[in-house]
Amino acid sequence: MKNISLAEDTISKDEMDSLADWLKTYPRLTKGPLTEEFEEAWSQKLGVKHSVFVNSGSSANLLMLYTLIESGEIKVGDKVIVPAISWATDLAPVIQLGLVPILCDVDPENLGVCPKHLEEVVAEHNPKVLLLVSVLGLVPNMPLLKGICDNNNIILLEDVCESLGSKWNGKTLGTFGLMSSFSLYFGHHLSTIEGGMVCTNDTETYHLLKSIRSHGWGREYPEGERKALESKYNVDEFNSLFTFYNVGFNIRATDLQAFIGISQLKKWDYVCATRSNNFKTYLSALPDGIWKPTIDSRSYISNFAYPLITPNRDRIRERLTAEGIECRPLISGSMSKQPMYTKNYSNTNTYEVAEKIHREGMYLPNHQHLSEEDVIRICDIIKDEI
Asked: 157-172 burial, b for 16+ CB within 10 Å, e for fewer?
């Protein structure tokens, strides 16, 4: 029997050959016109006004949060809600930027933040931001969670790194909050080798995102806004393009990556549909009695990997590994158990669902090369070990 990998690259041999031919034309490789073309095409496909291409999904999360600080929307010491089931690069930038992470347990039905616990956390901590993670492409009740944020003056940011193409009632994830982040790393829905995207419908936020991405440079602002800044800060024309109005980073991506990204966009619909169909096969082929996510009829799941939660996890994992089928912990388990959190914060709270996932959770392969037969084979092995 063939081995089944957890994830596979979406960049094909034809795309690599095309990239090699393009490189022979000696094009500009750093950020340039292809980056702008890719950003515009991404925005159109997602259905947002603006997108900013960066060097990773991790940088995308960092950029979103720091833009809120630089804009004055939040300040050092403010509290940010982070789901207990998330990833290191959801928690890390909160800590790095001097913000205070407040963990929230997850919903046992869809692994998004638990609405009930969210309301309790909001009442106790008065947070300024919710960094909402759509886990493995599953879709939480977006209107409900956004309503809690709106009613409490909480800024909603979306981490959609695992959920490209997932929708609530026809509206694509990544279009609900002030900003959203995407990953374009190997094994994700689409890849630019390394890369990420920040998206927004707010034009002022967009201009600030672009400036902070590139050192805080004034040259990233449109001419009218740049002229206003020159006047405000008494900057002469000679120094204008080398004036820094914000404290920024260098987290730019390149035109080389954008070249790949433009090609990858052609696969968006196919990749999402394949992952969605595989997810449906998992749901139907796995036995009754084992935990399965609850799928709201208003949601469309473009699944990153299939979540399995069972007390028989370790036995199933050993059998799958012996059969050449790759698996891993469900994201990274509960962030409340990670040393990066525990060595910085003393927290005696219990996150019941997240801790169960930490003990019993794993995820199973799903990618564009996985066939229905592959999924059924995986499910048959699990049936034998339940």
From this structure: bbbbbbbbbbbbeeeb
Residue 17 three-state SS:
helix
The position carrying tokens 């990670």 is 338
Compute the residue count for the chain. 386
Phi, psi of 260 (to 5 degrees): -65, -45
Number of domains in the chain: 2
**Domain limit, last residue, from 247, 266, 285:** 266
Q: Domain range for residue 316?
A: 268-385
pLDDT beneath 70, residues of the chain = none
Distance of CA 178 to the CA centre of its chain: 14
Residue 167 is predicted with a pLDDT of 98
DSSP secondary structure string for all residues of 99-148: -EEEEE-B-TTTSSB-HHHHHHHHHHH--SEEEEE-GGG----HHHHHHH
Residue 274 near residue 368 (C-beta atoms within 8 A): yes
d(CA 384, CA 8): 27
* Closest among 197, 59, 83 to 136, alpha carbons compared: 83
CB 97 within 8 A of CB 76: yes
Residue 320 CA neighbour count, 13 Å, CB half: 28
Q: Could you tell me the CATH number of the domain that includes residue 79?
A: 3.40.640.10
Residue by residue, DSSP assigns 368-384 as TT--HHHHHHHHHHHHH
Per-residue pLDDT, 38: 98
Tokens found for residue 119: 């309301």
Q: What is the CATH number of the domain that holds 307?
A: 3.90.1150.10
Give the tens place of pLDDT for each residue, 331-363: 999 999 999 999 999 878 899 999 999 999 999
- Alpha helices for the chain (secondary structure H): 13-23, 33-46, 57-71, 88-96, 115-125, 142-151, 203-213, 223-233, 255-264, 268-285, 313-322, 339-342, 352-360, 372-385
Q: Which residues are known catalytic residues?
A: 188
DSSP state of 358: H
pLDDT for position 346: 84
- CA distances, 291 to each of 323, 335, 372 (Å): 23, 21, 21
CB 130 within 8 A of CB 156: yes
